[in-house]
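User: Predict the structure for this protein chain, please.
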Amino acid sequence: MSDIDTNESPEPGPETLETVDDSETAVNTLKQELDASRDRYLRLMAEFDNYKRRAAKEYERLTESANEKLMLEIVEVRENFERALKAGESGGDFAPFFDGMRLIFAKFEEVLSRNGLTVFAEPGEPFDPAVHDALVNTPHPEIPAEHIAEVFERGYRLKDKIVKHARVIVSSGTGGE
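Assistant: Here is the predicted structure, written as structure tokens:
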């Protein structure tokens, strides 16, 4: 046998005990830092969830406020229609009735325009498949090919967004072409 016995462990000296103590201290310090980081993370996530809820409520409140303003303007137009219909029921001359309807329609157009709605699609305009839906392609004696010959339903744009495509009949040019 050899002079060195591998089964016996050397007695821990002061250097080994200091290393163990330093390791335990380091582990405890890291655990505390991890717990503190975890706590900060959980608080931050809770704060972010609260922010999202507040932002969603604020957005809903702003939307309702904007809708309320628009509805009040539309209610005014509705009341004008109601008055005109009552006046029309009294019978008699329909010319003033139609004049009143034209005025109400103009007021309604003003309300829509003021709130960012514009109407588009007129006969003679170039056909654009991005904003127009072609129903039929037909010859037209006066309107050139690939232009709107007739508007079946107007298109509507809210600010910069198309909210309804125009439905149109497209000219294929004159019948002799």
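The chain has a mean pLDDT of 86.
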